[in-house]
């Protein structure tokens, strides 16, 4: 083989590859920059690839729907019509990538608001969002640590997850019995839930077996962990992680003869779970209320629009619905503050903007106040119990304070 | 005691899962010395294509697995031609990173086609068996049995058939093999294609007890490497023993110690074994 | 030697100068400063990988784990125990060195593929400990509000530019260390081991001890990079120690050029830049990035520095042929060859090594063939 010509061919190919990269680089670089005229970028950084991609996509759909609707209705700030534009970046669930993304959205796209749907990422973003850079974090996480950080530019959207523990425990105890097995997922959030349920359950006078938490994302076969949890002969089991694996765990438990009740963490949605397993396996469970069971003024239309956008088969979840509401609130706050580029003023104006938000954006338990630390509060929080007949009955939830 | 028997069966089923997933990798890593980190992605792709033929097209379960296996054979050959063949004289590092690149590509591709949502594959094999008070589903029994049969067939293929013998010849003496007229390039293609085909059979059987997602191969990837290294590179009996041993160790420690230890035990066992026997349990006289 | 005229030194210096001047252009761009500074932290860990993989030829897949230990050391000591950054940093680096040395004691008993997978298992165990040992590491909740380095009233490290120069200064030390190792007898010892352990053993090199040192040194660099990373980003989660980090580092070193002085830095910066660039494609970026990675590995197997080095070699060879004089200070003995599987490959490497030992640089047709 003529190795000299071969090495030259290699060099040429390498040069071609490098050249192609450089070309793409310039092509992409040109596309950046802030929008012209009255376009305001709403930033979003979430997991769009990797294990959390489905979750990140659900959030993104809500943001897109809200921005489409708001632009159709027309947003007017300080007398000028404003067009909202969504810019999404993928962080693969990694906090430091999320913070870099947020910084980029704030610096390059001049986004006054960045949405992030995971507690770790939000904590990393809170290191940079009020100081040299200024932007509001629209935080989709139920972890109260986000508001305990006293970050002046945070808006926390969902209810504090600790609110659920007491009512979930009582309901599950009533329909199952006193002995609880813990089989939640091994994520940050799953572990916080496990702890909160543990406390509430003992307070209500129940007994708790060992902690059988497993990482739902890496377990190849759920039979082992389920057998172990059932060996404690529990009357109720705490489960939860993403909807679909949670459904599989419940199915496996029923197959292995479990008759008691389930406490389902809010990350898993009962209606979404019903798409991968029979409803029979899910009965006798307490969990969060499916979006389709809400009776807010805008819910029905929202469901229709969602089906048009995402297909009939896909189940709308609170990730989509609550972020839909969240963007509507932010847009209204911009109008009230009369500015699109001062995040402090926007944050301040949220309180007065809340009552003015159009009814069509009230879809999933609309908040009527925002706490000083930035938590949106919905006065009538409800969860659900899926009974033996496969019907969702509502369970009112009393909200706990965000203080530690 | 019932718990112990139940977990023993669960462990065996998990061992079947690991063995099935490991077989293809043992071939490629053990025989060709290519640490194919994209193996998990091939497994994932196999699962999705099986799912596509089963659910979207509507062919019977076994046929769906068969069609997908053939398609993946072609993907495997393509991977060898486009990625590993140009790197045949490069050190491991290059293969590894190229395989990571291929893995990224396959995952993004699957997400672009099928979306990020979890999917469930239904199987016609239903029902449970009760043995000594323990409950085990028919699908899991199929997994255990298939794992053993496929491994046995593979061993037979390598010992008895011409193609298999060329693989073994390459494994034993690369230079000698090419001297007697074996085309190493053909063998590489055959081996990678075969490994992708085996990964698809594994995925078609295992996917119904879990879920489909673009990252479903990730969780298996690291463990499968641990298994084949534990057994000894290129050793098929080693892969069987390694797979079942690690799975039972995992299930039992998770049951009797804690689930966190259960998750780590595969790697702790690996570290412990290699610290004592640096070449794995079933070391063959491999060329260095 | 004639260092001032050596194109490699000129090139490396130019890259470093250029990097050192970036704050002039981007001081107001927090995003750019952040990405570059985080990239430099990774580059430091990659220099560690360069010692064990690039020089010694051992594929160490625990580097992400050591990076994580450094990061968590600094993170936990400055928050839960309220130490000053500097004390925490020094202790973390020493801690990483000790853990690295101990891991090396067992890991280096294994060879080749076994070593790679063994270190991968070590890295994964480190990750599992960090992500599961909740009472100490806070598991997935992560460590928040990691302290900035104390400036003693002279420097305010909360300023991104000051932070940049801190990391930059430490990076320079790493580059210089790499350069010094390459030129020293230690470096030659390591390169001999890479070429052939048997050969090294035969000529009286203490193979085990040298590998052990190289492994510990690479862990130390990993710890330094991790410790700085913790203070730069302020919040760390278990992903700081994940196996993905290791593969990221591998990608950096491979794109830059293994066993070279400038490679790790160039590779880290270029790949980081590529990843940020393709962010616009969101979830689909890997449909493009995946093949690019594969193409880079196939078409520029010795990395960018190795690739550029090829031109330099050609020129200097020509000049040397004219001068017809031998002795040569070999800065780049052709990046990439680690121990391979096949016998013929091994033999070629040996030949390659002997050739360079006899005073010919890489990029010769015969060495090109093995790459």
TrEMBL record, chain B:
<feature type="transmembrane region" description="Helical">
    <location>
        <begin position="224"/>
        <end position="248"/>
    </location>
</feature>
<protein>
    <submittedName>
        <fullName>Branched-chain amino acid ABC transporter permease</fullName>
    </submittedName>
</protein>
<feature type="transmembrane region" description="Helical">
    <location>
        <begin position="61"/>
        <end position="84"/>
    </location>
</feature>
<dbReference type="GO" id="GO:0022857">
    <property type="term" value="F:transmembrane transporter activity"/>
</dbReference>
<dbReference type="InterPro" id="IPR001851">
    <property type="entry name" value="ABC_transp_permease"/>
</dbReference>
<feature type="transmembrane region" description="Helical">
    <location>
        <begin position="37"/>
        <end position="54"/>
    </location>
</feature>
<keyword id="KW-0812">Transmembrane</keyword>
<feature type="transmembrane region" description="Helical">
    <location>
        <begin position="137"/>
        <end position="158"/>
    </location>
</feature>
<dbReference type="GO" id="GO:0006865">
    <property type="term" value="P:amino acid transport"/>
</dbReference>
<feature type="transmembrane region" description="Helical">
    <location>
        <begin position="96"/>
        <end position="116"/>
    </location>
</feature>
<feature type="transmembrane region" description="Helical">
    <location>
        <begin position="254"/>
        <end position="276"/>
    </location>
</feature>
<keyword id="KW-0472">Membrane</keyword>
<feature type="transmembrane region" description="Helical">
    <location>
        <begin position="12"/>
        <end position="31"/>
    </location>
</feature>
<keyword id="KW-0813">Transport</keyword>
<dbReference type="GO" id="GO:0005886">
    <property type="term" value="C:plasma membrane"/>
</dbReference>
<comment type="similarity">
    <text>Belongs to the binding-protein-dependent transport system permease family. LivHM subfamily.</text>
</comment>
<keyword id="KW-0029">Amino-acid transport</keyword>
<feature type="transmembrane region" description="Helical">
    <location>
        <begin position="189"/>
        <end position="212"/>
    </location>
</feature>
<keyword id="KW-1003">Cell membrane</keyword>
<keyword id="KW-1133">Transmembrane helix</keyword>
<dbReference type="InterPro" id="IPR052157">
    <property type="entry name" value="BCAA_transport_permease"/>
</dbReference>
<dbReference type="Pfam" id="PF02653">
    <property type="entry name" value="BPD_transp_2"/>
</dbReference>
């Amino acid at each position: 083989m003529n190795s000299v010509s071969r090495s030259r061919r290699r060099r040429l190919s390498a040069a071609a590859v490098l050249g192609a990269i450089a070309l793409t680089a310039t092509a992409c670089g040109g596309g950046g920059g802030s929008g012209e005229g009255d376009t305001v970028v709403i930033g979003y950084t979430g997991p769009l690839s990797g294990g959390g991609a489905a979750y990140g996509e659900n959030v993104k759909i809500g943001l897109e729907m809200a921005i489409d609707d708001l632009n159709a209705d027309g947003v007017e700030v300080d007398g000028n019509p404003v067009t909202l534009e969504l810019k999404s970046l993928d962080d693969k669930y990694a906090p430091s990538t999320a913070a870099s993304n947020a910084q980029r959205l704030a610096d390059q796209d001049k986004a006054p608001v960045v949405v992030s749907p995971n507690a770790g990422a939000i904590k990393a973003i809170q290191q940079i969002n009020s100081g040299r850079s200024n932007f509001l974090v629209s935080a989709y996480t139920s972890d109260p640590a986000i508001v305990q950080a006293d970050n002046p530019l945070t808006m926390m959207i969902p209810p504090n997850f600790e609110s659920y523990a007491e009512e979930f425990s009582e309901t599950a105890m009533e329909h199952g019995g006193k002995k609880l097995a813990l089989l939640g997922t091994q994520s940050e959030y799953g572990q916080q839930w496990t702890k909160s349920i543990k406390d509430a359950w003992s307070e209500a006078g129940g007994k708790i077996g060992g902690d059988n938490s497993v990482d739902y994302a890496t377990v190849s076969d759920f039979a082992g962990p389920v057998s172990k949890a059932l060996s404690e002969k529990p009357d109720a089991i705490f489960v939860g992680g993403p909807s679909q694996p949670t459904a599989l765990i419940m199915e496996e438990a029923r197959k292995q003869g479990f008759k008691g009740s389930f406490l389902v963490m809010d990350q898993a949605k009962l209606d979404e779970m019903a798409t991968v397993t029979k409803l029979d396996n899910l009965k006798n469970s307490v969990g969060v209320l499916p979006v389709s069971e809400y009776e807010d003024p805008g819910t029905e239309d929202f469901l229709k629009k969602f089906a048009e956008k995402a297909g009939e088969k896909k189940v709308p979840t609170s990730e989509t619905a609550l972020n839909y509401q969240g963007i509507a609130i932010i847009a209204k706050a911009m109008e009230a503050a009369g500015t699109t580029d001062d995040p402090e003023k926007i944050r301040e104006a949220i309180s007065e903007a809340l009552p003015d938000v159009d009814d069509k954006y009230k879809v999933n338990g609309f908040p009527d106040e925002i706490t000083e630390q930035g938590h949106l509060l919905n006065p009538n929080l409800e969860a659900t119990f899926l009974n033996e007949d496969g019907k969702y009955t509502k369970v009112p939830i009393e909200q706990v304070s965000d203080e530690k | 005691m019932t718990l112990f028997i139940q977990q023993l069966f669960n462990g065996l089923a998990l061992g079947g899962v690991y063995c099935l997933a490991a077989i293809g990798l043992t071939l490629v890593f053990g025989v060709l010395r290519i640490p194919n980190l994209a193996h998990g992605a091939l497994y994932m792709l196999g699962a999705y294509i099986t799912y596509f033929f089963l659910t979207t097209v509507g062919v019977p379960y076994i046929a769906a697995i068969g069609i997908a296996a053939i398609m993946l054979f072609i993907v495997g050959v393509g991977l060898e031609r486009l990625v590993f063949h140009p790197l045949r004289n490069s050190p491991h590092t290059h293969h590894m990173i190229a395989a990571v690149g291929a893995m990224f590509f396959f995952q993004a591709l699957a997400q672009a086609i099928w979306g990020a949502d979890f999917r469930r594959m239904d199987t016609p094999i239903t029902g449970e068996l009760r043995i000594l008070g323990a409950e085990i589903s028919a699908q899991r029994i199929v997994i255990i049995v298939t794992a053993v049969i496929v491994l046995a067939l593979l061993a037979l293929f390598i010992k008895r058939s011409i193609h298999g013998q060329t693989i073994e010849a390459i494994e034993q003496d690369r230079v000698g093999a090419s001297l007697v007229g074996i085309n190493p390039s053909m063998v590489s293609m055959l081996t990678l294609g075969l490994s992708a085909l085996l990964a698809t059979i594994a995925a078609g059987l295992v996917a119904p007890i879990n879920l489909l997602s673009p990252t479903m191969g990730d969780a298996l990837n690291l463990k499968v490497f641990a298994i084949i290294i534990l057994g000894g590179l290129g050793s098929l009996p080693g892969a069987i023993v390694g797979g079942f041993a690690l799975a039972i160790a995992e299930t039992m420690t998770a049951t009797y110690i804690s689930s966190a230890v259960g998750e780590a035990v595969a790697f702790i066992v690996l570290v412990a074994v290699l610290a004592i026997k640096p070449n794995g349990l079933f070391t063959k006289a491999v060329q260095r | 030697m004639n260092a001032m005229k050596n194109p490699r030194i000129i090139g490396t210096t130019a890259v470093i100068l250029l990097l050192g001047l970036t704050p002039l252009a981007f001081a107001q761009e927090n995003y750019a400063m952040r990405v570059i500074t985080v990239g430099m932290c990774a580059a430091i860990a990659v220099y560690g990988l360069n010692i064990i993989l690039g020089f010694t030829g051992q594929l160490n897949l625990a580097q992400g784990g050591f990076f994580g230990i450094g990061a968590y050391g600094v993170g936990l000591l400055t928050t839960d125990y309220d130490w000053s950054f500097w004390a925490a940093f020094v202790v973390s680096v020493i801690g990483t060195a000790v853990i690295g040395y101990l891991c090396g004691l067992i890991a280096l008993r294994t060879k080749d593929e076994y070593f790679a997978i063994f270190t991968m298992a070590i890295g994964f165990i480190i990750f599992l400990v960090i992500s599961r040992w909740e009472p100490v590491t806070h598991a997935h909740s992560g460590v928040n509000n990691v302290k900035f380095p104390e400036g003693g009233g002279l420097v305010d490290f909360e300023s991104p530019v000051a932070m940049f120069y801190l990391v930059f200064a430490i990076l320079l030390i790493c580059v210089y260390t790499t350069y010094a190792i390459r030129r020293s007898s230690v470096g030659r010892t390591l390169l001999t081991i890479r070429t052939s352990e048997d050969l090294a053993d035969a000529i009286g090199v203490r193979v085990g001890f040298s590998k052990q040192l190289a492994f510990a040194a690479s862990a130390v660099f990993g710890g330094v990079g991790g410790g700085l990373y913790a203070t730069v980003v302020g919040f760390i989660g278990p992903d700081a120690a994940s196996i993905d980090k290791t593969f990221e580092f591998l990608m950096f070193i491979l794109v830059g050029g293994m066993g070279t002085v400038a490679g790790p830095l160039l590779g880290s910066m270029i790949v980081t830049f590529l990843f940020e660039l393709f962010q616009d494609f969101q979830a689909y970026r890997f449909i493009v990035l995946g093949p690019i990675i594969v193409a880079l590995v196939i078409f520029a197997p010795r990395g960018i520095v190795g690739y550029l080095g090829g031109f330099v070699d050609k020129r200097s060879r020509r000049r040397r042929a004219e001068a017809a004089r031998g002795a040569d200070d070999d800065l780049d003995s052709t990046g990439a060859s680690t121990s391979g599987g096949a016998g013929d490959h091994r033999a070629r490497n040996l030949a390659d090594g002997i050739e360079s030992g006899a005073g010919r640089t890489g990029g010769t047709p015969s060495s090109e063939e093995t790459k």
